[in-house]
Design a protein that fits this description.
- This protein is of the alpha/beta class and 597 residues long.
- It has 19 helices and 25 strands.
- It has an eight-stranded antiparallel β-sheet with strand order 3-2-4-1-10-9-11-15, covered by helices on one side.
- α7 runs parallel beside α13 and α15 crosses α19.
- Bound molecules: fructose -6-phosphate (F6R).
- The site of fructose -6-phosphate has 15 residues, from α9 and α16.
Amino acid sequence: MCGIIGCFSEKDCYGRLLRALKKLEYRGYDSAGIALVHKNRRLHENYRLIVRKKKGYVSALEGAVISGDTGIGHTRWATHGVPCDRNAHPHVSGKFALVHNGIIENHAALRQELCEHGETFLSETDSEVIVKLIDRNYAGDFFAAVRAACARLEGSYAIAVISADHPGEIICARCKSPLIAAAGKGALYVCSDAPALAGEAEFFCPANDGEYIRIAEGKILFYDSAGNEIKKSFLRLPAQIAALEKGDKSFMEKEIAETPQALSDTLKSLHRTDFAPCARQLRGAKRFFAVACGTAYHAALAFRDRAEECLHIPVLCQTSSEFRYRSPLIGEGDVLVAISQSGETADTLEASRLAKERGAYLIAVTNVAHSSLAALADFPLLLRAGPEIAVAATKSYVCQLLAVFYLTAQAHFFKHTRMPVWFFELEKLSETVRAAEECFLQTSHLAKQLSQTFGMYYLGRGQDVVTAMEGALKVKEIACVYAEGYAAGELKHGTLALIEKGFPVIAIATDKKLAKKCENALAEVKARGGFCALFSQYEDVLSESCADFCCRLPSISEPLMPVVSVIPLQKFACEMCLLRGFDPDKPRNLAKSVTVE
Ligand code: F6R
């Protein structure tokens, strides 16, 4: 999604904005721009705005530096209007320039109203209406004009605004889109995302919904929705964020390699978590609901599989976007488990708000302690995966699985006063995942063999269906290969029609009792000339199969195998991506944190 940044610094403001935008690149974007309040030495007008914005990469903004100590910047992920220079932010009206992340739902009505008052628009964006409103409401008080404009907006936004009439001042507002203020040596910032300030800021403080941030007279000030100043405490930027460096590999490769550490950090943190506050809900729940999007949704499905099997109660699992609009039968006495790496995914936040309004108890599984989801939750369950920069979730998915399995074990404990047997193998998880790296050489060969394929299937049975879905999603999003993850039993109900000579099918078989059934599906593929690859921890399952390619996974208690079996599939997707000439960290059209609906 769009990334926003604002900076006040007497030294190198443009360079600081540019560096932050480069760090925001990971969120996914199609254009970028910067505006500064520039001191005009020649004309009588003292200050003016200078804007530079371009379709394409942030690097297009490098070159001639704009001088000035107050600026804003933006990476755009197009929602309204195609990616082009004109639609790129900052947008300007009169003496104001604005950057925006979010969606203004009533933009069409506002645009019409503004046009009727004689305004003309330069872009097709929803964001331009905000700066027009600010300009029209301005009567000398910058902050009042921003508040008056925000009062007219419906939807989600984090905005940062500068004005040629107010050098040294940046005004920001937040409604359902992330926004933080931060301070570093010689610079004050506002930003959508802490990792953008790695190496620049030392302290940060998130804004809550409805709050305003004002940088003025070299200070950061917070205000409530009525415009009253409020006191907030700043926290030190976590060391892992402050030290974020990619090195010579992609973030995705780096993060896959960090998975064993992420797992052991998350496990330690889970051991330290006091589950007593949610004991009554976990013990008494007649059913669970689980919501999430994308990869996190696969973690929700894995939670369903494990919890239904262990707790013998139904788990109703839905993508967050569908949950909201299906009149879900959730209410008092129900528990909603919402899973989100970023804790800022708009649909997951809205689904969680809806569930809470109806009286459900909210458990949020998230990697970002200061996220909106964590703040909303009755019980935040935090991952310690460390910052995940690559758009494609890898180490966070694996830690999500660990966290939801751990939650299941706790619920089992509260119901039956004992942990499920597999709980005691969690300590071995990190080393087993490290052992899975031995599969990488083989997956790299497999990727070489399949890199030119136009499509592929991933199959599994039982707990492996979710892994098949996640494997398919990974290869789709970063390698741009059409892929489907399926229950192997469904193959002959339609999918088989597409199997022809050489069509690749990857199967995962980690559940011994279902392995034969998976093997039968592979035999059907093979009989039609398809290419079969099989991943299993069981030597006999592999040796008795008809697969053209076999990979032996390291072994751990079966219910924990989804944490292990996905590792080579993530690496395979990454290899496919590189072989096909794509950048794993910048998947086409995708964004890391989907803060709009
Ligand atoms: C896929 C991926 C996305 C996210 C999804 C939810 O690799 O990363 O599908 O999983 O956008 O994001 P979070 O977990 O931040 O809510």
